[in-house]
């Protein structure tokens, strides 16, 4: 138990350092270069962002083997949403990487993750700072839907490029005569994205009630 707790603490620390670096870098660049910094956000921090998101796949494994008590489906949906949008949509289309929506998306992701991993690190040590607990379980409720809207907008902006370049579209030769037109796949995924959003928001409210209920708040104060 102690070993697993230390492992999770190190994992949260690594994620905190990565997302803090990205978040700080974005703010400093914006304060220095203004709007000009938005267009090359992906080029300046995209590598670290991709590493952090790949590392987050371990959180699914943590739940499966039982060392993390979070619910599997909501966390799985949140992680796969980011993986699909970042690696399949943004990373594959260079024309999308310079859009302002990428900067907005990265800002929302990292703001949420800096708070979440800070809370997780302290929780591993048995420290529950009341304002941070409130922020962790409250901030995600308005910001997560905004991030879903940004993901949906990024997908919509990418559709003309997938149509023009035929990226990921597959046409099998005879005798199969079967083809996959990837823009249609993305349009169907938009339905999945917004349907999953309703389920995840419901789960976020459930977690907030579980951690910030009257009884829990009194226990944490004591």
From TrEMBL:
Protein name: Very-long-chain (3R)-3-hydroxyacyl-CoA dehydratase
Keywords noted in UniProt: Endoplasmic reticulum, Fatty acid biosynthesis, Fatty acid metabolism, Lipid biosynthesis, Lipid metabolism, Lyase, Membrane, Transmembrane, Transmembrane helix
UniProt record, GO biological process: fatty acid elongation; sphingolipid biosynthetic process; very long-chain fatty acid biosynthetic process
UniProt KW Acetylation keyword: no
InterPro entries the UniProt entry points to: Tyr_Pase-like_PTPLA
Gene Ontology cellular component list: endoplasmic reticulum membrane
Subcellular localization, as worded in the UniProt entry: Endoplasmic reticulum membrane; Membrane
Annotated EC: 4.2.1.134
Enzyme class: lyase
Organism of provenance: Machaerirhynchus nigripectus
Membrane topology qualifier: Multi-pass membrane protein
Pfam families: PTPLA
Reactions mediated catalytically: a very-long-chain (3R)-3-hydroxyacyl-CoA = a very-long-chain (2E)-enoyl-CoA + H2O; (3R)-hydroxyhexadecanoyl-CoA = (2E)-hexadecenoyl-CoA + H2O
Family of this protein: Belongs to the very long-chain fatty acids dehydratase HACD family.
Residues that span the membrane, as ranges: 7-30, 42-65, 127-144, 181-201
Pathway: Lipid metabolism; fatty acid biosynthesis
Signal peptide: none
Function: Catalyzes the third of the four reactions of the long-chain fatty acids elongation cycle. This endoplasmic reticulum-bound enzymatic process, allows the addition of two carbons to the chain of long- and very long-chain fatty acids/VLCFAs per cycle. This enzyme catalyzes the dehydration of the 3-hydroxyacyl-CoA intermediate into trans-2,3-enoyl-CoA, within each cycle of fatty acid elongation. Thereby, it participates to the production of VLCFAs of different chain lengths that are involved in multiple biological processes as precursors of membrane lipids and lipid mediators.
GO function terms (MF aspect): very-long-chain (3R)-3-hydroxyacyl-CoA dehydratase activity
């Amino acid at each position: 138990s102690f070993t697993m707790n230390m492992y999770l603490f190190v994992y949260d620390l690594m994620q905190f350092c990565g997302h803090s670096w990205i978040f700080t870098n974005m703010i400093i660049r914006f304060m220095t270069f203004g709007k000009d910094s938005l267009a090359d956000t992906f080029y300046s921090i995209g590598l670290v962002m991709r590493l952090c998101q790949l590392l987050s796949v371990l959180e699914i494994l943590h739940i499966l083997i039982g060392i993390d008590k979070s619910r599997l489906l909501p966390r799985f949906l949140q992680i796969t949403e980011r993986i699909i949008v970042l690696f399949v949509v943004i990373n594959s289309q260079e024309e999308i990487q310079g859009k302002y929506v990428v900067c907005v998306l990265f800002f929302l992701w990292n703001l949420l993750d800096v708070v979440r991993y800070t809370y997780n690190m302290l929780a591993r040590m048995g420290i529950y700072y009341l304002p941070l607990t409130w922020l962790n379980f409250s901030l995600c409720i308005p910001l997560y839907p905004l991030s879903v809207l940004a993901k949906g907008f990024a997908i919509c902006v990418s559709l003309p490029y997938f149509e023009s370049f035929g990226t990921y579209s597959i046409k099998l030769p005879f005798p199969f005569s079967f083809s996959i037109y990837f823009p249609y796949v993305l349009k169907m995924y938009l339905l999945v994205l917004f349907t999953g959003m309703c389920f995840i928001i419901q789960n976020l409210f459930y977690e907030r009630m579980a951690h910030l209920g009257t009884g829990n708040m009194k226990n944490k104060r004591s």
